[in-house]
Amino acid sequence: MIAVPVGGLVWLFQDELFEPFGDVRACEGSETPLPAVIAPGGAALPDDASDVHYVTRKGRAQVSFLSSRIPDYLHRAGLLADDGPLVGGRNGTKYGLGDGEPELPQGLCGSPLRGPVWSYANDSVDVLVERSTVAPDRFPSPARALVTYTLPLP
Questions:
Q1: Does residue 154 sit in helix, strand or coil?
Q2: Phi first, then psi: what are they for 94, rounded to 5°?
Q3: Which of 20, 45, 61, 139 could bridge across to 49 with cysteines, CB 3.0–4.6 Å?
Q4: Taking a C-beta distance cutoff of 8 angstroms, is the pair 107, 127 a contact?
């Protein structure tokens, strides 16, 4: 008779029991939770961000997400000039990931980033973004991004 109430409690609180911090976005092994609004480098993820996953360890966070609004995010994060091209110059540079080759950093869960990829960085955030295999100077829609940044001190 006790098994039914205990089983019901386990079912009711299963996310809190099996997901770090009760956050379905958090990957196993994360050391600290991220806020509801994730803002690497001070720029919130795009409104249409989906399939969001993160891992936090040693004061750093890695966040993976899908979005059709990657250029807007890169502008808001200070990684692209308002009138600058998406690639070349101080903007995106090629990253050594071949066509269709996956990358999922150790500890990060969810779908991997797939090459080819462009890399963007400044002092506060590093971003890898899938690029189109058909039009190399464009992003697919949606594109997966992998953002790495230092967590603010508590």
A1: coil
A2: -65, 145
A3: 45
A4: no
Q: Looking at this protein, which amino acid is placed at residue 66?
A: L
Bridge partner list, 138: none
DSSP class of residue 30?
Answer: -
For residue 142, pLDDT over 90 is answered with yes
For residue 139, give the amino acid letter.
F
pLDDT digits (tens, 9 = 90+) for 23-67: 999 999 999 999 999 999 899 999 999 999 999 999 999 999 999
Residue 2, pLDDT above cutoff 60: no
Dig out the tokens for 31 from the structure: 């050391």
Paired tokens of 45: 């993820």
Amino acid (one-letter) located at 118: W
Residues 85, 137 contacting (CB under 8 angstroms): yes
Return the ∠ at Cα 64 (arms to 103 and 123), rounded to 5°: 95
**What is the C-alpha radius of gyration for the chain, rounded to an integer number of angstroms?**
18
pTM: 0.83
DSSP-based three-state secondary structure for 4: helix
Output the six-digit token pair for 139.
């992003």
Q: How far is CA 50 from CA 114, 121, 127, in A?
A: 16, 22, 16
> How far apart are the C-alpha atoms of 109 and 55, rounded to whole Å?
8
